[in-house]
Amino acid sequence: MTNEEYRRYAGKHMPRSHVGHNCLGAFLVGGAICCLGQGLLDLYAAFGLEEQAAATACSVTLVFLGALLTGLGVYDDLARLGGAGTLVPITGFANSVAAPALEFKTEGLITGTAARMFVIAGPVIVFGVSSSVVYGLILCLLGR
Fold first, then answer.
1. CA dihedral angle for residue 131, residue 90, residue 57, residue 81, rounded to 10 degrees
2. Residue 65: is its pLDDT beyond 90?
């Protein structure tokens, strides 16, 4: 079998790409999460919270819902449907903290849940804090 024949043979048996379906799912699920966030923001503002307090309450609510849905096993199904659309919003952060904590809970409270809770989200948190410190030091040195 020549290289060209093999390439045609492999092309016939290769699974088809689902890029369009995956993009649509990510758009719809991510958009639904963002619409929920906007609805919560408007709701908290309607209850009389100032803009900053409403934004904080909205973020806390979305993190809680992300962790709750992860604990109930619903977020995994949502992620299968929405792919990257579930990773980008703040609910994806809650899922990345709650999922490893649940996965390793059989190893105990300290060595399992507490030690593994930030396996995925930990580097993001460390990088974010480190970057803000460096940025703050640069601003301080520049006299701003």
1. 180
2. yes
Amino acid identity of 24?
Answer: L
Q: State how far the Cα of 112 lies from the Cα of 130, in Å rounded to an integer.
A: 26
Domain boundaries, the chain: 20-118
Q: What is the C-alpha separation between 118 and 7, in angstroms, rounded?
A: 44
The first and second tokens of residue 77, run together, are: 């199904």
Higher pLDDT, 12 or 46: 46
Neighbouring CB atoms inside 10 A of 22's CB total 15
* pLDDT single digits (tens) 113-135: 666 666 666 676 777 778 888 99
Structure tokens at 52: 């900053």
